[in-house]
Give the backbone structure.
Amino acid sequence: MGRPQGSGAGLRQAEAIIVERYPQLLRLAYLVLPPDLDRHTRLLRAHRAVQHSLRAAGRRARQGGDPLAAVRAEVVRRAAGRRRGPFPPWVWGLRMWPTAEGLDQAARGLAGLSSYARAAHVLCRYDGLDEDAAAVVLAQAGAGDPGGEVQAALAAGTGPGPEEGAARDMGAGPRPGRETVLHPADVHTRPTDLLLRRTRIRATWGIAAVLLLAAGLTRAAVAGPDSGLPAAYAGAPAARAVLDPARLVRVPAQAWADTGRVDFTAWPARGPRTGDRSLLARALGTWAAPPSGTAVTVASTASAQPPGHPPQLLFAGDPRPGTAVVVFLDADRVVRYTEQGGRRGLDIARTDDANVTTAAAVTLTRDGGTARRLLAPWIATAGVRDLAAPATTARPLPIGPDGTVTTEFPREDAGRHGPDADASRGAGGGACGPRPVLEVASSPRIVEKHAFLLADRGGLLPVHLTYTPPAEGADAPPARQPREATGPAALARWAQEACALDAVDGRAVRAVNLWDFAVTELPETSGRAVWSCTRATHWTGQGDVRIRLRPPTGASLPVARAGSTAACGRFGQHVLATTLWRAPSGRTYQLAAGSREVTEINATGSLHSRTPGRNLAVPAPPAPAPPATLTATLRSGAAITALDSRGGGRD
């Protein structure tokens, strides 16, 4: 324990630590902050958390103890929400995000943990602290159960240990003396408006911010029938500039073919009304302050805040008679404005880390079973196929000159969006009727022979479907990334599991992967069954998984489900599942199977068994014996617990 120091000495010591370790402290704050923040806001709040920790950390340092621990604790305290200000810092004219590849994937992998458990992960995994030292920092930061938070990080597979897959994927390890470069101190920047940079903007911005808030609270009426600008903006030049149609960002038509970032930022402005100033002004004004009667739909965890800078224009036109639509891009969200029969609508969706597939289409209108979509400029061909009929070829769809296609899809509420949808509708493709999906192909100007599937699940953006085949045999190759679900094997498996899409909420989910992680020989020579994990990945990075067992005949059987989990994803590649299965003879068996790294399966409790390999099939204990507990040993020596029907997670 150090001696108490003078106030100046403690402050200087804290300042020296912050300056010396700024990138590491910034990473700590960035990964502790709430997972629902967009990258720009998260980065700015991380900087503020580190910089504003100076004085409090200085006070702690002069009271004695480890000054570095004091600084870390104050950063965690602020990032965890105990000392967060009401608004993020403002950066005029720029959007920023970290250059470090994998940092945001790491943030999404930690989304299911508490803020203090996320801090424990960073302190142990990246900063090299042991469990006790990490718990000390969390205690100073205000955690109610510091040891429990550290253990939660360990249990989630995010704690120290060089053999854990998440660390390998993120390019980090806890080896002393080796500092990982995975931090947000180096950033990319992109201009949002190149004209509003003069001193007068700084002078009026404070007024504009107040008026923006007032507009959002009072829902002020529009200034006139064609202006579209809320009355509260009349005296704020900076705010008026944000809502000026002339300042909208417009990308050149061929920019997508000459960029390394193929996402929504490469979309040009399309549609016959991109020059209609009145329509664009009404759309911007409605977004800033929706008038009474406006139907506003905001995707889960998305922000409904007005734009802080002129957004990018993606589309303006009349997809069908009597319906005007304007689509904007604002950082990590897409906003659709609709006018129909005197009514206005506003839909906001997240687009974090969108790419060539998840930024491939936007829904403009829906009318019964028909949808009109705007395709990305890099989409060369489009067609519609029935996912429940894998042998049927895709029916080509004409792409209009403005990049739109009309497709017939189920109504938004055709499928039941609930935890029991698949149980109530069956598991075979035909059991729940046709499942039309959009099959599109990218232009060879960006990638050769790249086709993929998009499913309409009721959201503004369609859901990307992928497939991961099983890795069989003792010499199975390393785990493969999900592949496009357009090959014969992928289509055949998706046809069998098509009803799983009924449980997917397209307003929150960006992609669904069907992973066949194991194949089991059923007892009594009943054939081979496939274990699959269907993971619906949200735009936030969180995922919901459903594990099913498909016997050689009949429908798939539900095994387990879990919500807000890393399981079956990039940071959860090790899976063990178990269920009870009744053979044709009437005898019940305990079945279990694991992913390719599983080397042994152990059963305890009402059933005692130790079976080498990736599969277990033994007679189940007679009822009313309690369920057995199953664990598996990985090649690394680590242990995982089985997901089963007792609640392998939460929805």
